[in-house]
Amino acid sequence: MRLSPWSALLLALPLPTAxxxxxxxxxxxxxxxxxxxxxxxxxxEAGRTQRExxxxxxxxxxxxxxxxxxxxxxxxxxxxxxxxPGMAPSEHVTFKTSIDNGxxxxxxxxARQPLIHGERSAQSEQLTLGADAAEVEWLGARQELMLxxxxxxxxxxxxxxxQALLRRQLEAVERALAEAKxxxxxxxxxxxxxxxxxxxxxxxxxxxxxxxxxxxxxLAALAxxxxxxxxxxxxxxxxxxxxxxxxxxxxxxxxxxxLAANPLLRQAQAKVxxxxxxxxxxxxxxxxxxxxxxQAGRDYVSGDGDYGSSSVEQTQHVIGVQVxxxxxxxxxxSAKRQEAxxxxxxxxxxxxxxxxxxxxxxxxxxxxxQTAHARVTALEExxxxxxxxxxxxxxxxxxxxxTTLDLLNAENDLDAARLALLQARTEVLQNRLKLQALAGRLxxxxxxxxxxxxxx
Length: 456
Fold this sequence. Notes:
transmembrane beta strand, coiled coil, efflux transmembrane transporter activity, OMP_efflux, alpha+beta, 4 strands
């Protein structure tokens, strides 16, 4: 069976269409639609409020209080000085006031400014660290979603190419089967050729069913992530232009960068620092606190008592420094501090574990990138060799030295080599972006560079 030059060219090259979905469009749609990004954005905005909370801990607080009720009062004032018009002044006078079940009202306004407060200092630093951790968490979620969009995008690319190749192979085998049946009926071919073509057709039918299912799964995954209609999802396959040589720094360099900037590692480090501040908070709870306090208030009581009807009014204005020294909390503070110490130990152990995991992931991604580059080079040579074999088999078929099935086998092997090359190219891109994400460097600028290369 002969392929036209145009068919061969279309199979060899990527086929961008006028409405093809590029990688940046897929990412931008996912960024706006995917619920994981909405969750990360909400967490970021919630975390940012912790900076304001930290500042608020050191601002003055103002409170107003008041009340009314029934009150009894017995008041004795001794040694008072008394003077009234028309009367001689008197010293050492005693005043008595008695009110039984009188009416009482009171109000006060208090302003308090913390001056020295170790517990608040630790809590303020905790909140600031929490805000920093929220930003790092958002960065990590953004990078993770980028990688997942890239993976879904290229899974659909490969699935569509596999489906197209299998469909084309099946059509060619079915034509060969029809030809074999006709020639068998004419006595030109043995029945064996018909059986071989039938077996090949049934095998390809089964593979095509699996490929169609795989494409549907990949299509649904990308549609769910982006919120786009499936008919709009026509991704661009990577070509050789995407794989322009880039210097790959040594593994030690990537590990050093990742240990300093990896989002998961930075989150774990923030957890350690927050846990340490929790320990400091309970340690400082035993220290004295100093506040600047200003207060104004009024108490008023009126009613009948042992000496007839009377009323008492007290108005006060106070400003000064207030010192509080905790003496005993029933053991609660000590128990809380011990709990905080153990949680700090746990956070440090988790940090060390994540550090090991990140190191292993960087090594795996770095080696995978090197391997993928080598696979691309080898598969490019395999495609060239398969093309030469296909051409030779086609020539043999034309002169009668090779059967139609021989030619189909050669063309199928070429298709398989091209599909493997496409998969290897997507692996290069994904491993390159994964390595950048592990180092905390994956952003829209780098994704846009890959997208621009896809469209060349």
